[in-house]
Amino acid sequence: MREAYLEILHREISPALGCTEPVAAALCAAGAASVLGEEPEYMELEASEYILKNAMNVGIPGTKEVGLEMACALGAAVADPGKRLLVLEGVTPQRKEFAERLVAQGRVTVGKADTREKIYLHAVAVAGEHRGEAVISGSHGHFSQLLRDGEPLSVDMLPGSTPESPAASSFQMTIEGIWNFIQESKEEDFSFLEETIALNKGAAQEGLSGAYGLQVGQSILGGEKDGLLGNSLADRAAAVTAAAADARMSGCEKPVMSVAGSGNQGLTATLPVIVVAEEGPEEFREKKRRALALSILVTVHAKEFLGKLSVLCGCSIAAASGVAAAVVYLYGGTQEQAELAIKTMTADISGMICDGAKPGCALKIATSVEAAMRAASMARAGRGAGGHDGIVEQDVENTLRNLGDLGTVGMNGTNMVILDMLLKKRK
Q1: 65 backbone dihedrals φ, ψ, rounded to 5°
Q2: Which of 282, 323, 328, 401 could form a disulfide with 338 if both were Cys (CB 3.0 to 4.6 A apart)?
Q3: Which pTM was predicted?
Q4: Dihedral (C-alpha) 395, 398, 404, 410: value to the nearest 10 degrees?
Q5: CA 369 – CA 234 distance, rounded (Å)
């Protein structure tokens, strides 16, 4: 069991530069251009409706552009799929100029794929009579198909592919299992999370010092001056996390550590825990990495019910629930109190929708972090939502299952309605 949980932790965190959906598009384009083997003259990209929705209004790192056209062009210009979700890191001025020409000359087309898969990208790179094709599906960095001139190629030819072990792929997580794993592990077992701490704190510092997005983090910290907002630990945690999202959604060139395929989920699942642990007593700092592991695993577990992409906001519904459980743990709470905090989060903000990646995500993240702190505080006092509160059940696993059903069965079709609204604004 211990090995499976550790493997899931390693598998579900990965560094990413830029919003994960356009970065996945850039990666797919890079795969197609790499297979083509020469500089592409044209690029075609088809994406699922979930990818389209999440990629329309978010900044592309190193540019002043938004959207999939530029992401696709930059990926094709780099043609280095081995960089995975860091594919847009260190793009040279020459390669940027090439990508800008492709877009300006109308040689990049983007359309909606005819698929029910939530994560699906199909990129085609064309030069003369030759075509390179790549398909990403299932997860943001998983190449499921490669073709050159219609002939299938092995995806193993791409560097960085790490197949999932049978043990981890069939393993069923539970909140109880996660809690026990954290309790039985040593702090040293999670030393690899230091990279997560460094990357995500770096993004937060960038957001707090620069004029990014809606400047939600700076507004929270500045609100104390006029008495509208305070300077509580919850306020500071929300501000730091929102500032990192502000920067990331606005094209900041600093990578972050993503969780369960989302950089914003990675920021939300980790930064509030880091703030509480580092500003608390020494015993909190001694438990910091275990608390981070707890938050990340609860996030991943909640996403098992919701799916990698959802019409519900994964930062609010999944990552902030992980934060609530981790804060309970830092304060010496019990498993039952952590489960109570998760159920209270479900009762509180389960209806928060995802209307695409954009600077305004920082608002949702700030709200969800504040809610997580409130849920943790209530749980420590033995208060919280139970079986009489809407979709919440006494059993936490059934509660998460209901949450998943709400976002899939109950809101079937909502994503397309949101996408239509976004597309109408572009006309």
Answers
A1: -100, 160
A2: 328
A3: 0.91
A4: -110
A5: 7
* DSSP class of 151: E
For the chain, report the end-to-end CA distance as a whole number of angstroms. Answer: 52
Q: Which helix (H) or strand (E) holds 137?
A: strand 130-137
Q: How confident is the model at residue 156 (pLDDT cuts 50, 70, 90)?
A: confident
pLDDT tens digit sequence for 69-127 = 999 999 999 999 999 999 999 899 999 999 999 999 999 999 999 999 999 999 999 99
Cβ-based neighbour number of residue 386 at 10 Å:
14
Asked if 256 and 13 touch (Cβ cutoff 8 Å), the reply is no
Q: Give buried/exposed letters for 149-167 (b at 16+ CB in 10 A, else e).
A: eeeeeebeebeeeeeeeee
**Backbone phi and psi for residue 142, each to the nearest 5 degrees, phi listed first:** -100, 110
Averaged pLDDT, 25-36:
96
CA distance 351 to 311: 10
**How far apart (Å, rounded) are the C-alpha atoms in residues 132 and 135?**
11
Of 351, 369, 344, the residue nearest 410 (C-alpha): 351
| 16, 255 contact by CB (below 8 A) | yes
Tell me, what DSSP letter sits at residue 315?
Answer: I
Q: Which amino acid is at 427?
A: K
Count the Cβ atoms, other than its own, within 10 Å of residue 335.
18
Collapse the DSSP code of 148 into the 3-class scheme (helix H, G, I; strand E, B; otherwise coil) and give the result. strand
β-bridge partners, 257: 15
> Identity (one letter) of the amino acid at 273?
V
**Mapping DSSP to helix (H, G, I), strand (E, B) and coil, where does residue 306 land?**
helix
Cβ(100)–Cβ(291) below 8 Å: no
Mean pLDDT for 367-379 is: 98
* CB of 258 closer than 8 Å to CB of 14: yes
Q: Which phi and psi angles does 15 have, rounded to 5°?
A: -70, 140
CA torsion, points 304, 306, 309, 312, in degrees to nearest 10?
-150
Which strand (E) or helix (H) includes residue 401? Answer: helix 396-405
Return the sign of the alpha-carbon dihedral for residues 354, 358, 364, 370.
positive
DSSP line for 335-359: HHHHHHHHHHHHHHHTT-B---SST
No. of H helices and E strands in the chain? 19, 8
The phi, psi pair for 137, rounded to 5°, reads -155, 160
